[in-house]
Design goal:
Blueprint lengths: L1 E3 L14 E3 L8 E10 L6 E10 L1 H5 L10 E6 L6 E8 L3 E9 L4 E11 L2 E8 L6 E9 L2 E9 L2
Antiparallel strand pairs: 1-2, 3-4, 5-6, 6-9, 7-8, 7-10, 10-11
């Protein structure tokens, strides 16, 4: 299970988008239940989010049939976006991945993933662009010997 962001501070009366990725590889077909515990400094000290994940037999048996045929950025939603966008990408091999954001002049603005080993399959990551100026940006995914570039537009 991966969290984006893994930790941080949230000011009172503010919101933050959190991405959670759960990989079902290695789980037997069944209903899996658990919880995510958020620690905080308010009365009680924690908030508990129950999580239920159902893994069905057909998804496990057909895993090989659902593998991507090529690596690359598959979507950015929404695009144009205001401050938060979800980037989805596929990998057709298990490989080391880098995902970077560039401004239109080619300057690297942010590294979203840096030389991180990723499994074959579909992946997603949340881009929080709150502190960036509006404009046209380029996302570049480098995976194995392949790369993929996608234009995105940040609206004011």
């Amino acid at each position: 299970m991966d969290f984006q962001p893994f930790n941080g501070i949230l000011e009172a009366d503010s919101t933050e988008v959190m991405g959670i990725t759960i990989r079902s590889a290695g789980f037997d077909p069944d209903i899996w239940e658990g919880e995510i515990v958020f620690n905080h400094n308010a009365l009680g000290g924690e908030a508990i989010l129950p999580v239920t994940m159902t893994i069905v037999e057909s998804a496990v048996n057909n895993h090989q049939n659902n593998l991507p045929s090529e690596s690359g950025i598959t979507s950015v939603y929404p695009n144009p976006f205001n401050s938060i966008a979800t980037i989805r990408f596929d990998l057709n091999v298990e490989t080391v991945v880098s995902l970077r954001l560039f401004d239109i002049s080619g300057r690297e603005i942010r590294t979203l993933i840096e030389n991180e080993a990723q499994e074959i399959g579909q992946h997603s990551i949340v881009l929080n662009a709150d502190n960036l100026p509006a404009g046209l940006y380029l996302l570049k995914l480098e995976a194995d010997r392949d790369f993929s570039v996608r234009k995105i537009v940040l609206m004011p």
